[in-house]
From TrEMBL:
EC id: 4.4.1.8
Identification of the protein by name: Aminotransferase
Organism: Sinorhizobium americanum
Record-level Gene Ontology MF annotations: lyase activity; transaminase activity
Presence of keyword Transferase: yes
SUPFAM superfamilies, per database record: PLP-dependent transferases
Amino acid sequence: MRPEWVVPISGVITALKTIVQAFSAPGDTVLIRPPVYAHFHDDVLINGRFAVSAPPDRGRLSL
């Protein structure tokens, strides 16, 4: 990891918004694995992405 890759962020919600914007584009689908804070789902939608939930199935990711 390079020091210039590290970005100080004020909290988890701000970090989530930054990650969604940096690694996806409007119209993309973002996978969310509940249970999560409501903000995780809402912020994906607010940023123009589609949220898809994939709840765990006996400890494994099930799509």
